[in-house]
Write a structure and sequence with these properties.
The protein is an alpha/beta fold. It has 9 helices and 13 strands. Helix content is 35%, strand content 24%.
């Protein structure tokens, strides 16, 4: 669902520091059901720039909050795990799984064929669509209007893939600008450096509410994505454990309660 195109991701926030201490951290605090120890703490990799899915709550001391965090903690509690979110640049999340710096990833990530080559995914837990974000008064209303424009997307996202396909397959002349964080992209639009951005609709609504000079239009040309799922290291036993609880939470209405809490009535599907 998010953003989140199937590229092989290449970096992690503070990669050198994390790599240096990754083994120690994993042994002491982040091992899950794949470990031979009794440690019941799981590290949840996420990119905390994507409200309401995940964001930093500065008023509470840099705490990471959001829909994905609540969902992971709820499932973890049912399974007897404590889930601790870790903020990582989005394009570093899959490497974090592969090298043991995270036990699972919730970041509005879509299980694309490319990603499935390197990690496993749970069942889908949420689905949304994409939106064109522009300054008010812009004549950009469809992807066809992006001809000759500068368009911002998040690096390694579904939206990057969507715009790249417009360039490569539909021969639309677009200058694609890729940044790590959504707020940076929004600021580039406000400053006039970008003509538009493609961002997931649920996330876009928050930025539109906070920035009255921006406008948003749903993309109606088949851009609905496959939805968000939880990523795990290949062959992790956590996948089946989390899938079982996720299924129950969908059936008993707990997932819908979280959707209503974070997205409002209009997002409950």
């Amino acid at each position: 669902m998010k953003r989140r195109f199937g590229l092989v991701f290449t970096s992690v926030i503070l990669a050198g520091v994390l790599t240096a201490c990754g083994t120690s951290d994993k042994d002491e605090s982040s091992t899950g059901s794949d470990s031979d120890t009794n440690d019941k703490v799981l590290i949840m990799g996420t990119s905390a720039d994507y409200p309401p899915f995940e964001f930093v709550e500065t008023a509470t001391g840099e705490e990471i909050k959001g829909f994905d965090v609540d969902l992971a903690k709820a499932i973890g509690k049912k399974l007897g795990y404590e889930v601790k979110p870790k903020d990582i640049d989005f394009n570093g999340l899959i490497p974090a799984l592969e090298n043991g710096q995270a036990d699972l990833v919730l970041a509005g990530m879509t299980p694309t064929p490319e990603r499935l080559k390197t990690v496993d995914f749970s069942d889908t837990y949420y689905t949304s669509r994409n939106m064109l974000i522009t300054k008010k008064g812009s004549d950009i209303k469809t992807t066809a209007d992006l001809e000759g424009k500068t368009v911002g997307v998040q690096l390694a996202s579904i939206q990057e893939g969507l715009v790249t396909d417009l360039v490569k397959e539909e021969k639309v002349d677009i200058k694609v600008e890729k940044l790590n964080r959504i707020p940076e992209i929004v600021q580039q639009i406000i400053s006039g450096r970008y003509d538009a951005a493609v961002i997931e609709d649920t996330v876009s609504k928050g930025y539109l509410a906070d920035n009255k000079e921006l406008d948003g239009t749903l993309i109606e040309d088949g851009s609905e994505d496959a939805g968000s799922a939880i990523a795990f290291k290949k062959d992790s036993k956590l996948k089946d454990e989390f899938n079982e609880q996720l299924k129950e939470m969908k059936e008993n209405g707990e997932v819908e309660e979280l959707v209503l809490k974070w997205f409002g009535d209009g997002a409950a599907k």
